[in-house]
C-alpha cells in the first residue's frame, strides 16, 4: 500500500550557529528601537523575521511510502506429548482457524512453522522458533502464537524475543499425570545374585499433601508378575534375582490413576546383562604329554577362571618300593574333589585320563550325575580312550556322546586336516572359525572337497557316535562331538594333537579360539547357544534371531507388541544356522517373540525419555518467553472445537493481551479474551518532493518592502 505524507522542513542556507548569532543581533537592534519607542520598530521586526526566515529556507516536503505488512509466526508443536489423545486434532483445528482469522486482518502476513522432537532431548520448541525467526525481519515481527502443550525442553532463562509470545494450550488447567521414575538401574548383574532397582511413583499436578500406596507390578522376562505396594512419592527398592547369563528384561508398571492424562509413563523397562562370577575349573591330566600345558595356559590366561589342576605322574600299578609319603608333594584329594566339592566346579576337564583305579566307580557315577544335573564335562582323548582302562567303559561312559570302536583299528595314525562338518557350520562353536573349510552360501550344500587352511594333526580316535552334534570330522570320522545330557553338557575331542596348532606346526590353527568357544558353550554362554531364539531392539528396530543346527526351514516367528498386538513373520536365512526377522519397534515396553518352542524378550525404552517425563499440558516450561515478551496463556478447552481468543493489532508499547482469565471460555461460550499482535508500521520511502515556502525572489521583495516601509515610518 502506498501512502503520501506532508510536513514542513527547514534547510538553512547558513549554519545554524550563524543564524543564532544573527537572531541575537536582530533582537538587540529591535530591543533598542522598542526602548526608544521608534515609530517603525514593528516593521523593522518584520524585516528581521523575513531575513531570518529566508535564511532558514522553510520547505513543504511530501513523502511517498510503500508500507510492508507485519509478519506473525504460528508455531505448531508436533511432538509426541502434543499428539496424546485429542490434543493433535485440537491443535490442528486451532491452526486452521487462526490462519483464517489472520487472513482477515489487514497488513498482516501469517507464517507457520513446526516444532519437532530433538532425538532423545525432548521438544526443541525454542530451536524451531529461532530457525523460523531467522527468515523474518525483526522490524516486521508482529508476534508469535504457539500451539503447544507447553512441554518444551530448550527454553533459555533469558530469551531475546522482543515481540509478544502467546501460548494456546489444549485442554484445561489442573491436569494430573502419574509417572514411574527409575532413579537407578544397574546395567550388569552376576548370575546367582540379585540386582537392586530404585524407583519412585509420582503424581504430577496432584494437590500437595496427597499420599497413599500404589500397586507396582514387576515382571521378569515376560513371566508372571509380582505385585508390591509402594508409597506414593517416595523411593522404593526392587530386588530382582539373576538366574541365567545374557540379558534379563525387567518391566515395572504402576497402576493407573483415575483421570490421569496418559499411562504412557506409568511403566519402565530395564535390561540387565548378566555375567558369571569367577569360574571354577577342575583340570585332571591323566599323564604327562606334549599338549598338557596347552590346557593349563589356555585356562590360566583367563583372569576370570579359578583353575585347579592335577596331573597323574605315576599309575598305581607301578610298584618300585617308593614310600607313599614321597610319591607326591600333596596327596590327590580324590574324595574332596569328586564327592564333597564336585558341585562347586563349573567345568571338569579330563585330558588323556584313563581309569586305572584312581577314581572308584562311585566317584565316576558322581561325575555322571553332576553332568545330568547341569554340570559341564570336556574330555580330550588319546590312545587310552580305546584301551581297557577307557572311561567309556565306566559309569561315566553313559554321558559320553561316543564309544571307541573295538579292536586295534580304533587309533588312526597319519596326517589329516580337521574339517568342520555340515552341522558344525551351523553350530556357534565351530561356525566361522578362522581358516576353516569355506561355508556354503545360505541354502546351499557344502562342497565335499572344501578343505581348511589350518595345520595338520597326526592321530585321532575312531568312535561310534551315540548322540549330540558332530561339529568336526577327521577323514569322515567324528572328531569333535557336542552333546546335551539332562541339564548338563559334554564335549568330546577324539584327538590329543590340538596342541600342534598352538605350536604353529604346519601353519598352526585357531586352537585358543576353538577351546575358548567349547568351554564357553559348556558353561552356557548365551552367544554360543546352538538352539536359541534372541530378540533385541536397537534404533527403533526389533531384530529376532533364531539359531539352530537343524537344516530344516525355520518356522514362522510370532511377535507380540507391548500393547498385545500379535503378528507373524517368515524369517529370512542369514547363514551359519541363523534366520532373522526385522520389523519396526515404535512402542516402548517389552516385545515378545516365539518360534513355537522358545520365547525371547526384548526391551524397547521410550525413544524420547524427556518427552514422556511429564505429559500434562503446562505453561510452566515456557514462562521465560512469556515474561520477556509480555504475552499471554489461553486454554482451548476440551471440546472438539477449540476455544480461541480474538486477534487484535496493538501499537508498540501497549498491552498485548486482555479479557478472559486464561482458563477457558465463560458461561456464554465466548472466546477467552484477546491476544495482541504488534503493529510495527515498517515502510520503504518510494518518493520525496520539497517545495520552498519562501523562495529567494519572494523573500527579496518582502524584505525590501518591509525595510522601505520601516524607513519611511521612522523618518516621518
Strand order within the widest sheet? Answer: 16-15-17-18-26-25-24-21
Principal-axes shape call: elongated
Distance separating the two termini: 62 Å
- Biggest sheet layout: 8 strands, mixed
Radius of gyration: 46 Å
What is the total domain count? Answer: 5
Query: Roughly how much helix do the residues carry, as a percent range?
Result: 10-25%
Structure report:
- There is one protein chain.
- Helices cover 19% and strands 34% of the residues.
- The chain folds into 5 domains: 2-66 and 687-715, no CATH class; 69-172 and 617-681, Rossmann fold; 177-273, Immunoglobulin-like (Sandwich), CATH 2.60.40; 279-522, 3-Layer(aba) Sandwich (Rossmann fold); 530-604, Immunoglobulin-like.
- The strands form 10 sheets. An 8-stranded mixed sheet has the order 16-15-17-18-26-25-24-21. It has a 5-stranded parallel sheet with strand order 4-3-5-6-35, with helices on both faces. Strands 8-14-13-10-11 form a 5-stranded mixed sheet, with no helix packed on it.
- α2 runs antiparallel to α12 (696-715).
- β24 and β25 (477-485) form a beta hairpin.
- It contains 12 helices and 39 strands.
- It has 716 residues and is an alpha/beta fold.
- The radius of gyration is 46 Å and the shape is elongated.
Core attributes:
716 residues, Immunoglobulin-like, 8-stranded mixed β-sheet, elongated
Which helices and strands appear, and what pairs or packs with what?
Blueprint: E1 2-10, H1 16-35, H2 41-56, E2 58-67, E3 70-77, H3 87-103, E4 108-115, H4 125-133, E5 141-147, E6 165-169, E7 177-184, E8 188-190, E9 194-204, E10 213-220, E11 226-231, E12 235-241, E13 246-254, E14 267-275, E15 279-285, H5 292-300, E16 305-311, H6 334-340, E17 347-351, H7 361-372, E18 376-380, E19 402-404, E20 411-416, E21 419-420, E22 457-461, E23 463-465, E24 469-474, E25 477-485, E26 488-493, H8 499-502, H9 511-522, E27 532-538, E28 541-547, E29 557-560, E30 566-569, E31 572-575, E32 578-584, E33 589-594, E34 599-604, H10 609-612, H11 623-629, E35 633-635, E36 646-651, E37 657-658, E38 674-679, E39 683-692, H12 696-715
Parallel strand pairs: 3-4, 3-5, 5-6, 6-35, 8-14, 15-16, 15-17, 17-18, 18-26, 36-38
Antiparallel strand pairs: 1-2, 2-39, 7-9, 9-12, 10-11, 10-13, 13-14, 19-23, 20-22, 21-24, 24-25, 25-26, 27-28, 28-32, 29-30, 29-33, 31-32, 33-34, 37-38
Helix pairs in contact: 1-2, 2-12, 6-7
Amino acid at each position: 500500500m502506498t501512502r503520501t505524507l506532508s510536513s514542513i522542513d527547514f534547510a538553512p542556507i547558513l549554519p545554524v550557529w550563524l543564524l543564532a548569532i544573527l537572531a541575537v543581533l536582530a533582537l538587540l537592534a529591535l530591543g533598542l528601537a522598542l526602548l526608544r519607542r521608534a515609530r517603525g520598530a514593528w516593521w523593522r521586526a518584520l524585516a528581521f523575521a523575513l531575513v531570518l526566515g529566508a535564511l532558514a529556507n522553510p520547505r513543504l516536503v511530501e513523502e511517498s511510502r510503500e508500507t510492508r505488512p507485519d509478519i506473525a509466526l504460528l508455531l505448531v508443536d508436533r511432538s509426541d506429548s502434543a499428539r496424546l489423545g485429542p490434543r493433535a486434532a485440537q491443535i490442528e483445528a486451532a491452526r486452521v482457524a487462526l490462519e483464517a482469522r489472520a487472513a482477515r486482518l489487514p497488513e498482516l502476513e501469517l507464517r507457520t512453522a513446526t516444532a519437532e522432537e530433538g532425538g532423545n532431548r525432548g521438544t526443541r520448541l525454542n530451536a524451531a522458533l529461532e530457525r523460523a525467526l531467522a527468515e523474518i525481519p525483526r522490524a516486521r515481527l508482529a508476534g508469535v502464537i504457539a500451539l503447544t502443550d507447553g512441554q518444551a525442553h530448550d527454553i533459555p532463562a533469558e530469551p531475546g524475543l522482543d515481540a509478544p509470545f502467546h501460548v494456546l494450550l489444549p485442554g484445561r488447567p489442573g491436569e494430573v499425570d502419574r509417572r514411574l521414575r527409575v532413579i537407578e538401574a544397574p546395567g550388569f548383574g552376576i548370575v546367582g545374585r540379585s540386582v537392586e532397582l530404585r524407583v519412585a511413583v509420582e503424581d504430577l499436578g496432584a494437590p500437595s499433601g496427597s499420599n497413599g500406596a500404589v500397586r507396582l507390578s514387576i515382571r521378569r522376562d515376560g513371566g508372571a508378575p509380582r505385585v508390591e505396594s509402594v508409597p506414593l512419592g517416595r523411593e522404593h527398592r526392587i530386588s530382582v534375582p539373576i538366574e541365567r547369563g545374557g540379558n534379563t528384561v525387567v518391566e515395572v508398571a504402576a497402576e493407573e490413576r483415575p483421570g490421569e492424562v496418559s499411562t504412557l509413563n506409568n511403566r519402565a523397562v530395564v535390561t540387565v546383562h548378566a555375567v558369571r562370577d569367577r569360574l571354577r575349573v577342575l583340570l585332571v591330566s591323566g599323564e604327562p604329554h606334549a599338549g598338557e600345558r596347552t590346557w593349563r595356559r589356555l585356562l590360566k590366561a583367563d583372569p576370570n577362571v579359578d583353575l585347579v589342576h592335577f596331573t597323574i605322574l605315576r599309575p598305581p600299578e607301578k610298584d618300585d618300593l617308593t614310600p607313599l609319603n614321597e610319591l607326591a608333594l600333596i596327596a590327590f584329594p580324590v574324595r574332596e574333589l569328586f564327592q564333597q566339592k564336585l558341585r562347586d566346579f563349573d567345568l571338569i576337564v579330563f585330558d588323556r585320563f584313563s581309569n586305572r583305579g584312581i577314581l572308584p566307580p562311585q566317584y565316576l557315577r558322581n561325575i555322571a550325575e553332576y553332568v545330568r544335573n547341569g554340570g559341564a564335562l570336556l574330555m580330550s582323548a588319546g590312545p587310552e580312550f580305546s584301551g581297557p582302562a577307557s572311561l567309556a567303559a565306566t559309569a561315566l561312559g553313559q554321558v559320553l556322546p561316543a564309544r571307541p570302536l573295538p579292536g586295534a583299528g580304533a587309533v588312526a595314525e597319519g596326517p589329516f586336516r580337521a574339517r568342520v562338518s555340515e552341522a558344525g557350520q551351523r553350530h556357534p562353536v565351530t561356525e566361522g572359525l578362522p581358516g576353516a573349510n569355506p561355508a556354503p552360501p545360505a541354502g546351499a550344500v557344502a562342497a565335499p572337497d572344501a578343505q581348511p587352511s589350518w595345520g595338520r594333526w597326526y592321530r585321532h580316535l575312531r568312535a561310534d557316535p551315540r548322540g549330540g552334534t558332530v561339529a568336526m570330522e577327521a577323514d569322515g570320522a567324528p572328531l569333535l562331538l557336542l552333546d546335551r545330557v539332562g541339564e548338563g553338557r559334554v564335549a568330546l575331542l577324539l584327538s590329543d594333537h590340538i596342541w600342534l596348532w598352538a605350536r604353529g606346526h604346519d601353519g598352526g590353527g585357531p586352537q585358543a579360539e576353538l577351546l575358548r568357544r567349547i568351554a564357553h558353550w559348556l558353561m552356557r554362554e548365551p552367544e554360543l547357544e546352538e538352539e536359541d531364539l534372541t530378540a533385541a531392539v536397537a534404533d527403533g528396530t526389533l531384530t529376532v534371531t533364531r539359531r539352530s543346527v537343524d537344516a530344516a526351514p525355520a518356522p514362522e516367528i510370532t511377535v507380540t507388541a507391548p500393547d498385545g498386538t500379535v503378528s507373524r513373520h517368515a524369517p529370512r536365512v542369514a547363514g551359519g544356522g541363523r534366520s532373522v526377522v526385522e520389523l519396526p519397534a515404535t512402542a516402548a515396553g517389552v516385545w515378545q517373540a516365539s518360534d513355537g518352542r522358545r520365547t525371547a524378550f526384548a526391551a524397547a525404552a521410550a525413544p524420547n525419555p524427556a518427552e514422556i517425563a511429564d505429559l500434562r499440558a503446562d505453561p510452566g516450561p515456557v514462562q521465560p518467553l512469556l515474561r520477556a515478551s509480555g504475552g499471554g496463556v489461553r486454554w482451548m478447552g476440551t471440546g472438539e472445537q477449540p476455544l480461541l481468543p480474538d486477534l487484535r493489532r496493538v501499537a508498540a508499547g501497549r498491552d498485548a493481551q486482555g479479557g478472559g482469565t486464561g482458563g477457558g471460555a465463560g458461561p456464554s461460550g465466548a472466546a477467552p479474551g484477546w491476544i495482541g499482535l504488534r503493529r510495527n508500521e515498517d515502510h520503504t520511502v518510494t518518493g520525496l518532493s520539497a517545495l520552498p515556502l519562501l523562495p529567494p525572489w519572494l523573500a527579496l521583495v518582502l524584505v525590501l518592502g518591509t525595510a522601505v516601509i520601516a524607513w519611511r515610518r521612522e523618518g516621518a
